[in-house]
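Researcher: For the record, we're logging two predictions in this thread. I'll number them. Prediction 1 follows.
Model: Prediction 1, sequence and structure:
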Amino acid sequence: MSKNLKSDVKKHIPKDWLCELRILYRLLKETCNDIKRTGWVNIVIITTMAAILLIFGSCFRTALSISAFSKELGNALEISVYLKDSTDAREAKSEIKRLDHVEEITIIPKSDSWSKLKNEMSLPDIDNPLPDTLHVKVDNPENLQEVFDNIKQIKSVMDMSYAKDLATKIELVNHVVKTITLVVIGIMGLLTITIINNTIQLVIQSRKEEIEIMRLMGVSNWYIRFPFIMQGAFYGFTGSLLALVPLNYVQNGLINVHKFFMIPSPLYAQNLVIFVMFGMSILFGAAGSFWCIKKHLQV
C-alpha cells in the first residue's frame, strides 16, 4: 500500500529538468572524485584492460580475416555435374537452378571439353566420349553437400564430383575460428569483471563511512550506485581507447596479407571490431562494478 501511495505522489510532482541536470552533474563529479581517489592504480587498471582488449580485438579481427579467406576459397569450389548422352543441357540447367542454395550454373559442352583435352594431350582420332558438364556454384560452402545430394536425385545426371575433403576442412576451420572467438570473449569478460570488481571493492572500503552517512540521510540507492557503475564503464572505455593504437597495426598487417593473396578484406571489419570492443568493454566494466556493489554494498 505504501509503495502505491509513493508512486502516486511521484506522478503528481512536476518534473524539474534543471534539478535533474544538477543531480546528473553531481553524479558525474562524484565519479571523477572516485577515480581520483584510486590514484596511480588507475594506470595499472587501464593498461591491463588495454592489454586484454588488444588480445580480444586482434583475435576477433584475425577471425574475420580467416573467415573471409575460407569463404573466398569455398566460393571457388564447384560441383561438376556430368549429364547423360540424351540429356538437353539447358533443361538440366533449368531444373538444377530451381534448387535451393544454387547461385550460378555454367554449361561446358562436351565438344569444348574434348577440344581442350586434345590440345593438352596426344589422343587418337576417335569419337568424343566425354559428356556435357555443368559447373554448379553454391551460395555458401556449408551448403555444398545439401546441393550435391539434391542434384544426385535428378534422372538426367550420370555422375558428379566436388572437392569434398577441401570443403570439410574449410567448414572445420570456420567452426574452430568461431569457437576460439567465443572462448576469447568469455575470458575477456571474466578478467574484466574480476579486475573491476577488485578495484570498486577498494573504493567502497575507502568510502564506507561516507556511504553510511548518505544512507542515514535517505539518499537514493541509485545515487550511491551510479558513480561506481560509471567508474567501471570508464575503465572499459579508456582501456579500449588505449588498445586502438596497437590494434591499428594489426589491422594494417592483415590488410597487407589480403592484398598479397588478392583477396578483399572484410567490409567494415575494423569498424565492427572497434564497435564490439568498446561496447563489450563498457558493458563488462559496468557489470563488474554492479556485481561488486551487490556483493559488498547493501544498497
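Researcher: Logged. Prediction 2.
Model: Prediction 2, sequence and structure:
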Amino acid sequence: MFKNRTEAGVRLAARLRAYQGRAGALVLGLPRGGVVVAREVATALGLPLDVFLSRKLRAPGDREFGYGAVTELGNVRIEPALVEEAGASGIEQERELAFQRSEIELQKRRYRGARPLPPMKGRAILLVDDGIATGATLLAALDGLRTAGVKEIAVATPVGPLQTLIHLAGLVDACEALETPQRFRAVGSYYEEFDPVSNAEIVGLLSGEHPHRRPPAIAW
C-alpha cells in the first residue's frame, strides 16, 4: 500500500539507481497519474523528465476498461481478445479512436505548448506509470517508442498484476514494480490517496514546480 503517488515515486526511484545520472537517459511519465510518479523518479535520479501521450481506447459500456490504445506518435494497438470482451463494434472503435486522437492533440498543446517531443533515437527510456491494469496504454507506448528508434526501454510502476508484468518483462530491457499482486484490484485500491490529477498539475510538474524538491531537467 502506498500513501500517494509521490511516495510511490520516491520508493520506485530507489529501485532504479542503475540509471542515476546516465547520459542520454530520459524519464517519460504516462498521464495523468504516471507523471506524478515519474517526477519523483526523474528528480531522484537526476534525469530529464517529459510526458508521453498514450490514450486508452475505452469499452462502450465501461469507460475504465481498455481494449487498446493510441499514442501521440500515431501508432494504434488493439488487443482482439479485449475487443471481444469490451463488445466494441467496428463503428464504435472508429469513433473512439477519432476521439482519443483529438484528445492527444489537446494534451500536446496543454503540456508542451509549441515544444515538440524530445528526440528519442538512441536513448534509454524509463517509462513510468502509477499502476498497470490491462497494460493497453503501456503496450501502445512501447510500440511507439520502438518506432521512434529508442535504444533501451525500462518500464517502472509501483503496482501491476503479476502475469501482466511477467509478460512485459519479456518485451523490454528492464521491468521494475514494487507490488505484484496475483489477484489484482483497481490501481487506486493500492493507494491511500488517489485523487485525480489535473492538467494544471501536470504542467506544473513538467515545469519543475515543487515546494520541497530540486526540479529535474526538462528534456528540450
